[in-house]
Amino acid sequence: MLARLQLALELEWATLPPYLVALLSIKRSSNRVAADLIRGVAMEEMLHLALVANVMNAVGGRPFVGKSNCPRYPLTMTFEGRPFADRTFPINLERFSKASMVTFMKIEQPQQPVTKTAWLHDVIDVPAPTIGEFYGEIVSLLEELDAALPGKLFSGDPSHQLESDFFWGGGGTIRIVTDLESAKAALRTVVDQGEGAWPWTQDRLAASVDHPLDMGHYYRFSEIFFERHFSKTDNPGKPPTGIAMPVDYTAVYPIKQNARTTDYPKGSRIAALNDAFNNRYTMMLRQLGEAINGTPNALYTAIMNGMHEMTSIARDLMEAPIADSTSGETACPTFEWID
Question: Labelling 93: which of 103, 141, 147, 288 has CA 20 to 30 A away?
């Protein structure tokens, strides 16, 4: 179970850099509505990471954030060495575009009902589970273990719990996890907002139309893709038909896709900026690791200092042309761990 919770944490972490790259590639004077929608989703992915960490800490685990599990792009989400059944596509660090919105919609796409059961994974060769099944299996394991160990499963150190004071932005709040019900509530927030959610009903979509931060991630990205908001009468299984939301895919920096440190000549300004970015990214991740392992107030420092400093450097990179690019590409932060 702890291994699955660790993987859940890594899944949430892995979506952050792609969302941030797409967001920051948008030129500041354009696409403000789309940028706000992406920013809200990115903040909620950080919330999901915090919620999974709280569940893991509540059952005595030690969430790990380090060089060995730092995501590299292009990335395929895997379970026990196999791509998740509904996530067989690569995830890139790429500019804001129609194509990137398609990928983001795929990442957050609500799962469809399936008939295979969890025990089949152990007895025959079947595809890896969907993201929704994966989270469902975690909940089932928690229920089984709590029943087998009444009063003993949730024995983690309460001081390791992240509280709402250390996080803000997006929809939802951090939940302190102390028992089965609070653990299930925390994971329900993760699933309902993003990857693994069941398709929404028309009533649920209608209730969120006036409150974008209550809308599931898939539906927010759908609004950007179709360049139109949902209306209260829309069918959530179909494209939105509400007020138009103009999107300008030309008002972005033409950044290099899936850039690596080795793409930038040593001694160049771009290399220096990328090193500065990665140093701050690594520092933020170290602070995040501290926050989810007994020093909760480090989360405030990670978000306020790390994220804000990274944003400024990322924009400088994205404005900087790559000298030997034949297509006019600009640089992009590589999101690599620096020792």
Answer: 288
Cβ density class 92-110: b for 16+ within 10 Å, e for less:
bbbbbbeebbebbbbbbbb
Q: What string of DSSP letters covers 93-122?
A: ---SSHHHHHHHHHHHPPPPP----TTHHH
Q: In whole angstroms, give the CA distance from residue 84 to residue 22.
A: 23
The DSSP bridge partners found for residue 255 are: 330
Distance of CA 217 to the CA centre of its chain: 10
DSSP state of 307: I
Q: Under 8 Å CB-to-CB from 320, ≥6 apart: which residues?
A: 269, 270, 273, 330, 331
Q: In this predicted model, what pLDDT tens digit does every residue of 172-200 receive, in sequence order?
A: 788 999 999 999 999 998 888 875 455 66
Query: Can you give the length of the chain in residues?
Result: 339
Unique residue bearing structure tokens 């404005």: 319
Angstrom distance (rounded) from CA 285 to CA 337 = 9
* Cα 327 to Cα 47, 92, 262, distances in angstroms: 37, 19, 19
Asked if residue 291 lies in contact with residue 304, where contact means CB atoms within 8 angstroms, the answer is no
Nearest to 147 by CA among 188, 180, 187, 186: 180
Q: List pLDDT tens digits, range 241-298.
A: 999 999 999 999 999 999 999 999 999 999 999 999 999 999 999 999 999 999 998 8
